[in-house]
Amino acid sequence: MFKHDKQLLAEVKVERPNPTYATMLQEQLGGPHGELKAAMQYICQSFRIKNPEIKDVFLDIAAEEMSHMEMVATAINLLNGHDPTATSATVGSIESHILSGLNPMLTNASGELWTAAYVNVTGDLPADLLSNIAAEQRAKVVYEYLHRQINDKYVRQMIDFLLNREEAHNTMFRECFQKIQDTGSNRDWGIDQNARLYFDLSTPGNYVGTQLHGPTPPSFNNPQNPPQQ
Amino acid sequence: MFKHDKQLLAEVKVERPNPTYATMLQEQLGGPHGELKAAMQYICQSFRIKNPEIKDVFLDIAAEEMSHMEMVATAINLLNGHDPTATSATVGSIESHILSGLNPMLTNASGELWTAAYVNVTGDLPADLLSNIAAEQRAKVVYEYLHRQINDKYVRQMIDFLLNREEAHNTMFRECFQKIQDTGSNRDWGIDQNARLYFDLSTPGNYVGTQLHGPTPPSFNNPQNPPQQ
Amino acid sequence: MFKHDKQLLAEVKVERPNPTYATMLQEQLGGPHGELKAAMQYICQSFRIKNPEIKDVFLDIAAEEMSHMEMVATAINLLNGHDPTATSATVGSIESHILSGLNPMLTNASGELWTAAYVNVTGDLPADLLSNIAAEQRAKVVYEYLHRQINDKYVRQMIDFLLNREEAHNTMFRECFQKIQDTGSNRDWGIDQNARLYFDLSTPGNYVGTQLHGPTPPSFNNPQNPPQQ
Amino acid sequence: MFKHDKQLLAEVKVERPNPTYATMLQEQLGGPHGELKAAMQYICQSFRIKNPEIKDVFLDIAAEEMSHMEMVATAINLLNGHDPTATSATVGSIESHILSGLNPMLTNASGELWTAAYVNVTGDLPADLLSNIAAEQRAKVVYEYLHRQINDKYVRQMIDFLLNREEAHNTMFRECFQKIQDTGSNRDWGIDQNARLYFDLSTPGNYVGTQLHGPTPPSFNNPQNPPQQ
Amino acid sequence: MFKHDKQLLAEVKVERPNPTYATMLQEQLGGPHGELKAAMQYICQSFRIKNPEIKDVFLDIAAEEMSHMEMVATAINLLNGHDPTATSATVGSIESHILSGLNPMLTNASGELWTAAYVNVTGDLPADLLSNIAAEQRAKVVYEYLHRQINDKYVRQMIDFLLNREEAHNTMFRECFQKIQDTGSNRDWGIDQNARLYFDLSTPGNYVGTQLHGPTPPSFNNPQNPPQQ
Amino acid sequence: MFKHDKQLLAEVKVERPNPTYATMLQEQLGGPHGELKAAMQYICQSFRIKNPEIKDVFLDIAAEEMSHMEMVATAINLLNGHDPTATSATVGSIESHILSGLNPMLTNASGELWTAAYVNVTGDLPADLLSNIAAEQRAKVVYEYLHRQINDKYVRQMIDFLLNREEAHNTMFRECFQKIQDTGSNRDWGIDQNARLYFDLSTPGNYVGTQLHGPTPPSFNNPQNPPQQ
């Protein structure tokens, strides 16, 4: 069951309205690395998890991402201000001026509608955890980009908070991964010598890895003579 | 802030696994009239509502729709069972067998990914309430269709519960609409005689409304001579 | 059968080209509450309607929405002018400058492609009529937003005309709804006490409805103890 | 202005209901080469055409494609029959059983929602006509595929009619192309020797064209030494 | 097998960074008539072609389109420069500033994500070749539009090169079409008199074609009395 | 520059046609964890990489994923066989029977069109590498699911090969990550105490991590009293 508390997870305020920045911030409400995506991915993955401790972590974080979504939307709302002039936002989508009445929307900064294509769910815990670790890192990167685009100190404080929370989630997902890393798709599934080959298909340039090749370089690494099953 | 309680809003169980029906039920998880759509529409609309009572209703219902989503997903999960054979579901999407490991997904029954294009947000309270009244009615219709497709008594009980709840939400949104119906887009916005014309553009057949025409029929109702501004 | 008459439903002209406003007006050609959506929704719903009078209303309005679409596109075309400079439109999509040669497109103001996800069809007349009433209200709201963004008197006249026509359609759909409101999904479908409960899931704040609770308040309204089926 | 005549462009009937084939036929209602796509493409292209004769052809055909859409939808409706059992259609989308109440929908045979991404509009008449010639050919191919999947003689008659009409449209677009082929993007736009080179990038195999190379083969056709501007 | 050569197919450089034009050029990386679309369409069509010569042409061109995609992306990358300020691009999508770190993306100029809905594959060689001839023409038109929007001489040289190459591909596809034009969907498939009718559904205006009507005008060309099967 | 070699990267054959399995295998041609997605993600990310060794790895792998895509498509083509009966595939999309003439398509197993929403590109190397490690793991999981659904020994050999290659790519991306892990978004970006808090938002259940809390548990972990900036 989900419940809502009207107190925000952390205070949100802005120095002054800034419709252009409001549009940019939409990226983390309805974009591919935004809060809605994170919430949906973790809720959805949790549906089939059996390990109660890990299920708890996923749902703790999912509820928090929902709460972040609410914070970001609150900031967009304040930044949108009360001026319904479409040309007040000089870059990005103008949908909030002519479609939603300055209401935050489930789109990214360019007006692309949120899609479940952003959500990765495989039913395999190692794969899902790796997806989440990567997703948190991407969310952090976007917040760093957004941080550079504004001087409003309160908005920056909010971004700092959210960025730190993504870091915390990253840590939590990594800890979960440590615990289950020998299960599911990470179990040996009949890896053979093909997993140790290196195909040099882009030339010039020859990647020299150490772990991949092992002590003895593979006898075959020529794409001209591909392996025959 | 959103919080999660591991107790479901209402108990969910199934008589036996039924992968074909699991696929059908996906319609109310990730389809256009499903629970995710309802939750997202009401949360999103609430962001800019100023009237605290009405904002409360929207968020009460939004949190409940999130909880319904969890119930529907739980039922899908149980109906999917443990047989990973893709051909066990004879109609509908097979994604849960080859992509998500039997995990519920954010798609409709045919595998179409959920999109924010389903969500209607205008920033105008009368319009948003009318959208919600219509949305609840459509959700009810889909649950009626789904009810006919299964005999599992527990699944039917869950559908009965959800259907009744949509009815309750419908009632609540109608009450809100009564309160605010003379505000926003419902205020007179300079309606002129064009709002009382009837264009008979599909022939044969001539709609005779009473309220539209008023006591005096409009002098013009002929599409051959359209109105000149 | 559909036929086309080269005379527009109502005259369309503009004071002067205005590529920025042309982009905004795209919202009502290819956006979620635009004319194409309305036309498609009503045509599609009409396919299975048996009541000849109501089928007639749907098709009268659908043909008119097609005719509105033509008017909006004609206005966009005039507003686009003849200057192929992409930077002449300072906000919104630039697709018409680099992709369509200043031709109106089936996208919204931000360039999002029109999708049938905007169209609601349930095969149930009460639900479809409620969808249409809500859709007309949303269309009206968007025209009000667009009206504020331009001073061109001819464009404003066109918007006034279209806005009044949405009002007329709204009236017609409401009249239809009166006639069939006890059919389809509006028939009593075994509503039980769950339809009269109120779950207070967002706190603080406690919605107090009158119609919902009835003379005797429900004995259960505590989400901590959800109903057991 | 668009008008609707309740008489179909050509009679539509079926020998008996066939929900599986109804699903297949959805391909030509809401698929990429279906009737809605054709209608939308020609209407949209016509908005900016100045040549009145060619504009007339586009709109004659567009209105006919709208009328075909109505015929295809009528056939789907009859084939869907009255049995709301989702498993009665053994392949393809089940949306019409659980979402639309057996109403035809704006999707293809797999339930993918129609999108304006199918529509090609460039504002350049030679390019648009070539797009239309190709679109008519693809529509014909899909009708040929669909013809093979059913024995119902009335459905086959309808397909024969539609297929012949695509052929007629193809002829009409080709005639238009003859008339304007030296305009727009077909005018010489500074073609240089790069337009006569042949890059043999897939090996082995060496395409030997006659028109391309001319009497003297180009001195350069080696991708190892790409042209330097 | 695909291989990559780090040398570009043709040199790409720019006079100076130009983030606004970088956004416009995205149209030919991830738009409907861009290089990715062309590459994907020809690769995909080639999978079932049996004629080895024609398969070779499709794959030669597909590999070249992949190489064009790389050139366009390289130009976008240079035009994006190193200034991460979102407002430096005054029109079009701002995603590259806040989402991709100035990396080229698989979107069009308005940020619409690339979709396989752009790709036409029918398994019928005449239809596929006509699709490709039209696609090359549209690509040429977009390059002409883009050429007008910039003065950077190196970017113009690149566009000239690409435009000439589309012309070459057009020629090659036309030659292929000559060779196979009596096969597949171009074989006589039982065309009857319906293919020679002309329905005058848009009035006023009466298209007079010569080839279509033949020496004797069809006895039926009145939409009021549609053909009865 | 990309080049194509008509020899496949590894031999592909099938014991016998199997249209149902052909549909399933579409998941790895045009699905979210399929070969096209992998190829596009790595090509796109490579555009802005400066480190030549890492750029080489990305392009080696990208070219190989293109080659895998060709292998998967070849297998689908053989499995589709020559029977154009739409009902021969009993589950999954029927598009290949009625739209593409048994040609492989850029869709997943349910007919959902491939979308660039699947592609993650951030311009930040640590984030992109984590995305790729996760993507390879998900691809491996889907191949494991697909392996279970078929007995055809040659198809299983192909899946074994591809699965092993994803494992190799995973190893290569991990090695790259080791080398650059202290750069970009992984540099300390002003992490504060908020990164070490744990919000217990789903109850009951209390995740106890070790690394997150450190030697001293955070003084705050109560969502009732959220942090104040």
Automatic annotation (TrEMBL), chains A, B, C, D, E, F:
Molecular function (GO) terms for this protein are: metal ion binding
Keyword Manganese part of the UniProt annotation: yes
Alphabetical list of InterPro entries matching this protein: Ferritin-like, Ferritin-like_SF, Mn_catalase, Mn_catalase_dom
Please list the residues that bind Mn(2+).
E35, E65, H68, E136, H169
Q: How is the cofactor bound?
A: Binds 2 manganese ions per subunit.
Per UniProt, the ranges with Pro residues bias are: 215-229
Give cofactor(s), names only: Mn(2+); Ca(2+)
Annotated region (Disordered), positions in chain:
208-229
Top-rank taxon: Bacteria
Instruction: Write out the entry's keywords from A to Z.
Output: Calcium, Manganese, Metal-binding
- Please tell me where Ca(2+) binds in this chain: D56, D60, S202
* Stated family: Belongs to the manganese catalase family.
Q: What is this protein called?
A: Catalase
- Originating species: Calderihabitans maritimus
